[in-house]
Structures are given as structure tokens and as C-alpha cells.
């Protein structure tokens, strides 16, 4: 959702067996359709599922990536990248690219450039869709499934991609590789990344690591000493890194050293916590919502929803400063 609009994609099975894929904008207040545009028609159902495989609403523009041709024995798969005016659906430009292996595209816009990671990184001019460059080297999909995880970051001068082969930094000027940390290193597979103060914080199956964003040098590594199904949802506040695990719940680490500050059996299932005014709100795979004091991990309250919750975000918190003001209650007997 962006600028009060909800962007969706859909597909229509045509009488001749073809599949038409469309994107549409809905009004956020009542769900009424503002506009709809067809983006591609496939002669047969395109695996794995029809639809767009990357969307981003930014600066009044909807960017949409869609599979346009599946791979053959002689040709790689192809995708189209569209830019629509988010208000009226007017096509601003259309560009394209090719790929070998990928299930989704991750899109970001920074400093007038649209970055699209499919199985390599592409950079397009946001004003007219001109391809500026594409990264070289072997094809490597991003590590997160279907764009669920945070696996692409772009800052001034650098882009960071968390792929199946490891973590790679690229120059945003020309796409050249600045450094690479392989999954064959002692750190293993990175699952999700975030960036703060020139440091990349990356989660892994059994913990988290901090790397210098300029060089890729390992600064510290936290290991849980148990084989978990993966730490996810990194969240940084001041001097603390919060991560969530499918089994062990919510973990707080010192961002300077990686030392464990506290750990609670709340959250889990990879659900991203929300931090507001010193309190972490998080849901769990068991359907329990909890409020946790961020400074020491004290559980303030729990609320059972009588159902499961999905990752990465199954909880939205609306903040009002008034709820944090002291109230005086009168006892009624």
C-alpha cells in the first residue's frame, strides 16, 4: 500500500487457454478500483504461478516486474519492468531483462535509480527506464523466498544482495562487485540483512553476525549453540539488535559485541516485532500476541488469539502517545 492506494495483481484464464496478467490500484478507504492495466499475456500457464513477481510503490509510481517468457533450451527467461503513474495508471515506461533462475524480483528505488534483483542486479533510470548496468558473474537468486525476507539493501554508493551464494556488495555507479562473503565461510547461509551506521547485521540459521559494510570484514558473530530453523526479522534500536527465531522466540543482542542481553519465549515463527516507545509487540506461531519491555525483556502482557500467526508480519500496531501517559483509576466495589 502506498499513498492511500492498494496495488494488486491478478490473472485471467482466457477461452483460448492463454493467461492474461493485470495490475490494478484500489482505493485504500473502500476498496473501489481506481484503474487496471494488462501487462502480459502468456499462451500457456507460466510456472510457478501466474502473476507479477515483483511490485513496488514509490514516489507516486508503481513499478511492476512480470515474467514475459519462460526459459527454453536456447533462450533464457525474460522479464518486463513497467512504471505506471500510481494515480491514473498511465504507462510511464517499459523496460526488460533476462534471467536464468529466479522465483521473484526485489525492487528498490534510490537516488533516481530503480534497482531490480532477479538472479543478478539490474539498475534502470527511474525517469525513463533506460538500463544503466547489470551486475556480472554467475546467476544467483536472492536467499529469501518470494521476496518475503529483507535480502536487498541500497545505500549511497553501494547495494547489498543476500543470495544463495552469500552476501555481495556492488557499486551503485556501475554494478561492479566491491566484496563478497561466501556461504562456504564459517558464517554459513545468511537469511536476512539490515544496515545501520555502516554495519550490516545478518541473521543465520543459528544466530547473527555483524559485518563492515565497506569491506565485508566480520566484526562479531553470535551463535545460539543449538541448531534452529533460522533467525529472522532483524530489528535495530539504539544499541540493541532484536532477532526472531522459529523455535527460541525473541532474542536481544548488543550491537557492538553480539553478546546476549536477554531472550524470551515469545514471538517466534519468524514474525517481525514492532518497537514503540520502549515496548516490543510481537505475535507468535502459537497465536499469542505479547508486549515485551525492550530494555530487559520483561513480558508485560500476553493475549491469545486462539489461532496461528504467519511471518514475517502478522501484527500492526497503531501508536497514540496518550496510551503511554499515566492514568489514575478509581476502584469500584
Describe the model.
- With 333 residues, this protein is mostly beta strands.
- The protein has no helices and 27 strands.
- Strands 4-5-6-7 form a 4-stranded antiparallel β-sheet, with no helix packed on it. Strands 8-9-10-11 form a 4-stranded antiparallel β-sheet, with no helix packed on it.
Q: What's the short story on this structure?
A:
By secondary structure, this protein is mainly β.
* Mass-distribution shape: globular
Low-confidence stretches are 322-333
Distance between the termini: 48 Å
What is the CA-based Rg, rounded?
22 Å
Could you give the order of the helices and strands?
EEEEEEEEEEEEEEEEEEEEEEEEEEE
What structural class do helix, strand and pairing data support?
Answer: mainly beta
Beta-strand segment tally: 27
Describe the sheet with the most strands: 4 strands, antiparallel
Topology:
Blueprint: E1 5-13, E2 19-27, E3 33-42, E4 52-58, E5 61-69, E6 77-85, E7 91-99, E8 106-110, E9 113-117, E10 121-125, E11 131-134, E12 152-155, E13 158-163, E14 166-171, E15 177-182, E16 190-196, E17 199-204, E18 207-212, E19 218-223, E20 231-237, E21 240-245, E22 249-254, E23 260-264, E24 274-276, E25 279-283, E26 288-293, E27 299-304
Antiparallel strand pairs: 1-2, 2-3, 4-5, 5-6, 6-7, 8-9, 9-10, 10-11, 12-13, 13-14, 14-15, 16-17, 17-18, 18-19, 20-21, 21-22, 22-23, 24-25, 25-26, 26-27
Amino acid at each position: 500500500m502506498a499513498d492511500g492506494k492498494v496495488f494488486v495483481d491478478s490473472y485471467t484464464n482466457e477461452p483460448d487457454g492463454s493467461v492474461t496478467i493485470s495490475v490494478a490500484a484500489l482505493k485504500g478507504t473502500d476498496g473501489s478500483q481506481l484503474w487496471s492495466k494488462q501487462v502480459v499475456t502468456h499462451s500457456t500457464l507460466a510456472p510457478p504461478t501466474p502473476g507479477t513477481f515483483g511490485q513496488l510503490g514509490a514516489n507516486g509510481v508503481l513499478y511492476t516486474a512480470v515474467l514475459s517468457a519462460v526459459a527454453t533450451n536456447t533462450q533464457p527467461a525474460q522479464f518486463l519492468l513497467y512504471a505506471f503513474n500510481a494515480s491514473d495508471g498511465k504507462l510511464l515506461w517499459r523496460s526488460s531483462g533476462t534471467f536464468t533462475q529466479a522465483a521473484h524480483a526485489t525492487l528498490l528505488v534510490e537516488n533516481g535509480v530503480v534497482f531490480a534483483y532477479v538472479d543478478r542486479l539490474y539498475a534502470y533510470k527511474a525517469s525513463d527506464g533506460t538500463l544503466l548496468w547489470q551486475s556480472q558473474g554467475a546467476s544467483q537468486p536472492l536467499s529469501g523466498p518470494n521476496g518475503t525476507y529483507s535480502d536487498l539493501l541500497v545505500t549511497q554508493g553501494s547495494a547489498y544482495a543476500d543470495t544463495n551464494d552469500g552476501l555481495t556488495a556492488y557499486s551503485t555507479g556501475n554494478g561492479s562487485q566491491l566484496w563478497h562473503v561466501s556461504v562456504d565461510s564459517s558464517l554459513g547461509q545468511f537469511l536476512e540483512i539490515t544496515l545501520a551506521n555502516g554495519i550490516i547485521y545478518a541473521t543465520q540459521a543459528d544466530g547473527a553476525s555483524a559485518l563492515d559494510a565497506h569491506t565485508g570484514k566480520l566484526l562479531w558473530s553470535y551463535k545460539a549453540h543449538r541448531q534452529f530453523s533460522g533467525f529472522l526479522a532483524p530489528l535495530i534500536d539504539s544499541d540493541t539488535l532484536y532477532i526472531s527465531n522459529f523455535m527460541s522466540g525473541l532474542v536481544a543482542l548488543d550491537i557492538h559485541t553480539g553478546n546476549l542481553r536477554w531472550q524470551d519465549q515469545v514471538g517466534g515463527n519468524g514474525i517481525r516485532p514492532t518497537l514503540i516507545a520502549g515496548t516490543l509487540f510481537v505475535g507468535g506461531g502459537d497465536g499469542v500476541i505479547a508486549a515485551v519491555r525492550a530494555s530487559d525483556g520483561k513480558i508485560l502482557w500476553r493475549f491469545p488469539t486462539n489461532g496461528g500467526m504467519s511471518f514475517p508480519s502478522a501484527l500492526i500496531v497503531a501508536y497514540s502517545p496518550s496510551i503511554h501517559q499515566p492514568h489514575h483509576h478509581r476502584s469500584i466495589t
